């Protein structure tokens, strides 16, 4: 490695702590307490680092398990070991999952599909909601995520099932599920795959079935515009930040799509019906 490349590599590694320190200083100037400034800085810097990592992975498949399925989206293999600890730190813990299930209004005996299930936290909660007579399965293209999900389901004695699959080619028959859940996954897909994936969700839903989707949406708090404006210039998130989630679902064939709530000022809860 040349000296110039070595210096550049060291500079890249210094960027996260320097960005965090700068963000803390700016938030303190704006009147935040030290701890509030640290929290806001982490909310700003950590997603930026993860976004950079996801882009690198999508280009070079760094950190992928050999079993991870090919997709134009962004599997999060590399986050599997820390995902269950990371999500609560950014406000996506158990309360967030329970809120998603309240909008889903699951009933005993229903069949549920969780697309992009990650480590399966929401899928296992859905399995509890539909009970012994119901059925819950989570799919994800990331082999390491599915591995963690299966391990945790076995440990908890959960009836939830998990398998490797991609949303744009769901391995299920037509009219199979009463409800499909999609939690913080859609922004991992490029625009054309969003439509294809949502069309597949529409196909596997029973007539009258529902999709409950929570994802990046048009911010309702000004501070999030300050932090998230770069997402307007990334094709994966542009439509969502501009508030077009409902249009995407209608383009995929859903007869009705409505915003049901929000979380944290930048995530929207949506319900769509077949």
At the first level of CATH, the class of the largest domain is Alpha Beta
Q: Estimate the helix proportion, in percent.
A: 40-55%
Order of secondary-structure elements? HHHHEHEHEEHEHHHEE
- Gap between N and C termini, in Å? 56 Å
Beta fraction: 15-25%
Describe this structure as you would to a colleague:
It is built from 10 helices and 7 strands. The protein is an alpha/beta fold and 274 residues long. The protein has 2 domains: 60 residues; 188 residues, Vaccinia Virus protein VP39 (Rossmann fold, 3-Layer(aba) Sandwich), CATH 3.40.50.150. Strands 3-2-1-4-5-7-6 form a 7-stranded mixed beta sheet, with helices on both faces. Helix 7 links the parallel strand 4 and strand 5. The chain is globular and about 55 Å long.
Brief characterization of the structure:
By secondary structure, this protein is an alpha/beta fold. The chain has helices at 3-29, 34-60, 83-89, 94-104, 121-130, 143-156, 191-204, 222-228, 238-241, 245-251; strands spanning 111-115, 135-140, 161-164, 177-183, 205-216, 256-263, 267-273.
